[in-house]
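During the no-cost extension, the postdoctoral fellow (Dr. R.K.) reprocessed legacy sequence entries with the updated structure-token encoder. One reprocessed record is reproduced below for audit purposes.
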Amino acid sequence: MIQIMRVSGNSLAPGIQEGDFVVIVKIPFLLRINRLREDDVVVFRHPAYGVMMKRIHYFTPQDGGIYVYGTHPSSVDSRQFGPIRQEDIIGKVIWHIPGQRAAE
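Re-encoded structure tokens follow.
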């Protein structure tokens, strides 16, 4: 089970930018905490912000929380909303496809 998503927003810029595409894998076996790694990019649902895409920063074994971060300085991430839950993860990014960039 895979899905192609168009990136909206620049929270992972400059690596992944608005207008790019990502391929995510949605196989539950691969989305378990013991299969996810620090620095993996995940797509998840957040109750206040909707669907988001961030990098995994670290795990908190005591409560199963996953701290995520964006690479853009103004990114909203676990520094503001705390850890996410494993069950909120929609998929893991396995491929990044850069979008067309306007000539500068």
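The longest helix spans residues 78-81. The CA atoms of residues 37 and 56 lie 7 Å apart. The remaining legacy entries will be reprocessed before the final report is submitted.
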